[in-house]
Specification:
About 30% of the residues lie in helices and about 15% in strands. It is globular, with a radius of gyration of 26 Å. The longest helix has 20 residues, at about 135-155. Helix 1 runs parallel beside helix 2 and helix 13 runs parallel beside helix 23 (about 655-670). It is built from 23 helices and 27 strands. It has about 675 residues and is an alpha/beta fold.
């Protein structure tokens, strides 16, 4: 067996999990949509069929106040049960097990009816919560128990009680948000009372043969959070109260320390799960940035945990466990932790999916049927759009020829993988290299195609996925060798001086600035990363935070944009703050409302809000957007060839792999 620890069953006494993989909770956005539960059933069923040992749903509120937002999903009444049965039936038919996560958001609720331990507003919500009365607390405890009762009635195998990430229960536990003076505030015993009373009430309601997972905040990563001794004491009390499994919770949503983005090293927090595991007698689940079976196996082999939770990796590949069991780990579509189609969507009240797997969440809509009329197709450009289309189309039965003038596939991903913190893009290129072979795509690298050469080969249709060209700025002095494009820096590795002006503060401008200033140790060395972000591995202070450690930076960088808006304001909702923080700590000077005048050997002349100034820089790097590279499509159309355009060649606005891969998949499904 390739992964003996990962694939080993876990005996819980009254039931056995077939392996040590837990699909962690993730809100998909289907919970609130019309016919969303039918689609959720298909989503979870595919993960169960793929072999995952236990699934946990996205968070479901036990009452109205606990909803994420006014329309948020809730399980409180008997008429809610029927739609949940669709999910449990589908999972059980696929020989899977599934738990419902009970999530009360507390002060994180995005509505005016929010409640908390104390009336302290969260920095991530515009609404100040009302402090729960003692009567309100008792009612909330009953609501949790009722939710669990209904979950059992709906056919769930258990529930997960969300006690971490800064949600309601965590708000009671931490002194930061609990300023009460009654029996639910003050001492550790009082602050943890609600957590224990909820678990006892659930256990009494559902009986012994029902899984109760408690997601315990092992690292709050905020000031005035829990101490290590308090975490251990609560873990033991939860075990006594009837918890079946302890899941690891890392950080609050308002924490200044990233916990799941790409730049977080793999298995960055398993060390705390290991410490807690040594103190309890029930299985402990670890989580966060675990995205390959090799890493998961090592965690279990090293006895850092009894189970491994992965949420986004099972969005990226529903057959993760099945492929690992077959010894085909190199064929897993690895999660790159970009957050672009999953968490960024969820936090904007949009449906979640996956950048590298556009079928995630769209299992009933994005369907790839075997073709009746096989076509001979040419795909020009082996970037994200071209790769995705080629594989899906070939898997449907078309004869697909994929051309690229480069000697490797990947397109812009080959640039992205060079950025500190984005090394995971190597995995996507590895995955597509294997998938192209398995799908039977005819790959032609190092070949530049023309309209005539393509027409001569007799293709039924040509799919143009030729990407983009960097936009050049026609300004005085910008033909100087010291003025470069981002491709000169990231792809061609041209030498760059110590003082640099970066024109354009979109995603590429941030990437170039990171490339010029960020040491790779931040992402490839765990201890260096923890030190950089101020995570106290020794757990000497509440919340396990300490002063962040900045490293000397060799370059002085200016990052500029024409727009008057906040620099970096258009970056991803859940990751943009990390990129802005990293560059600020590296001393990057961010300027908005900039007009670019000219370049000379003295430097770059700009005007900020009408006032001219000379930046005495060695180099200028232009990241001022892109233009679609679609001239080939125009030539083909002029010659009467049937053509489709996808990816950057279709729309060049910022490099958008999420859109490119989805567009390629959607075209392949209908062609």
């Amino acid at each position: 067996m390739s992964y003996p620890h990962l694939l080993q069953p876990l005996d819980l006494g009254f039931t056995t999990l077939k392996n040590r993989v837990l699909m962690g909770s993730m809100h998909i956005g289907l919970e609130e949509q019309k016919n969303g539960f039918e689609r959720l059933a298909a989503f979870y069923k595919e993960r169960a069929e793929g072999g995952v040992g236990l699934i946990v749903t996205g968070g479901i509120a036990p009452n109205f106040a606990g909803r994420v937002e006014p329309r948020g999903a809730q399980l409180s009444h008997f008429w809610h049960v029927g739609k949940h049965k669709k999910i449990t039936k589908a999972v059980h038919e696929a020989d899977g097990k599934i738990c419902l996560q009970i999530l009360h958001t507390g002060r994180y609720a995005y509505h005016p009816f929010s409640v908390s331990a104390s009336a302290i507003k969260a920095p991530i919500s515009p609404f100040k919560p009302r402090a729960l009365s003692a009567r309100g607390i008792r009612k909330t405890i009953k609501d949790f128990a009722n939710c669990a009762k209904l979950a059992k009635k709906a056919g769930y195998d258990g529930v997960e009680v969300m006690g971490s990430e800064g949600y309601l229960i965590n708000q009671f536990i931490a002194p930061k948000t609990n300023k009460r003076t009654d029996e639910y505030g003050g001492s550790f015993e009082n602050r943890t009372r609600i957590a224990l009373e909820i678990v006892r009430a659930i256990r009494e309601t559902v009986g012994e043969d029902f899984i109760i997972i408690f997601r315990l905040s092992m690292l709050d990563l905020v000031d005035n959070g829990s101490t290590f001794d308090e975490v251990i004491a609560l873990a033991k009390l939860l075990e006594e109260a009837g918890v079946t499994l302890l899941n690891t919770g890392i950080g609050w949503h308002e924490a200044r320390i990233p916990t799941i983005v790409t730049s977080v090293p793999r298995k960055a927090f398993t060390w705390i799960s290991e410490r807690v595991r040594k103190e309890v007698n029930i299985p402990v689940i670890t989580t966060n940035r675990i995205n390959t079976p090799e890493i998961a196996e090592q965690i279990l082999a090293d006895q850092q945990a009894d189970m491994v939770s992965m949420a986004r990796p099972l969005l990226a590949d529903e057959k993760f466990v099945e492929k690992a069991a077959k010894g085909e780990a190199d064929k897993i579509n690895t999660c790159i932790a970009c957050n672009q189609a999953c968490l960024d969507h969820v936090f904007k009240q949009q449906q979640a999916s996956c950048l590298v797997n556009p079928r995630a969440g769209y299992e009933t809509e994005l369907v790839f049927k075997t073709v009746v009329n096989k076509k001979k197709l040419a795909v020009v450009g082996a970037g994200p759009a071209g790769m995705a289309f080629s594989c899906y189309a070939a898997e449907r039965g078309h004869e697909v020829h994929l051309f690229d003038q480069s000697n490797e596939i990947g397109g812009q991903f080959n640039i992205a993988k060079t950025i500190p913190g984005k090394e995971e893009f190597h995995e996507t290129i590895r995955y597509f290299n294997n998938r192209v072979k398995d799908a039977g795509v005819h790959l032609h690298l190092g070949q530049k195609q023309t309209a005539d050469s393509l027409i001569e080969q007799g293709f039924d249709q040509v799919i143009v996925a030729t990407g983009i060209n960097p936009r050049e700025l026609n300004l005085p002095g910008f033909d100087h060798p010291n003025v470069m494009s981002y491709l000169d820096v990231l792809r061609d590795r041209k030498e760059v001086g110590k003082r640099v002006a970066v024109i354009g503060a979109g995603g590429i401008g941030f990437d170039v600035s990171a490339f010029l200033t960020q040491p790779k140790s931040h992402t490839l060395d765990l201890d260096a990363w923890l030190d950089y972000w101020g995570v106290d591995k020794e757990y000497q202070e509440r919340g396990a935070i300490k002063e962040m450690h900045d490293e000397p930076v060799e370059r002085e960088v200016y990052l500029m944009q024409r727009k008057s808006s906040k620099v970096g304001g258009g970056l991803g909702k859940t990751s943009g703050w990390v990129h802005r923080t990293e560059l600020k700590r590296a001393g990057v000077k961010m300027l908005n409302s900039v007009e670019y005048k000219s370049y000379s050997e003295k430097g770059l002349l700009i005007a900020v809000n009408g006032e001219e100034q000379l930046l005495e820089v060695d180099n200028v790097v232009v990241c001022a957007g892109q233009l679609s590279n679609n001239s080939l499509a125009d030539e083909l159309k002029a010659k009467g060839q049937s053509v489709e355009i996808i990816g950057g060649a279709y729309v060049a606005a910022e490099l958008d792999a999420k859109r490119a891969i989805r567009q390629g998949a959607e075209l392949a499904a209908r062609i």
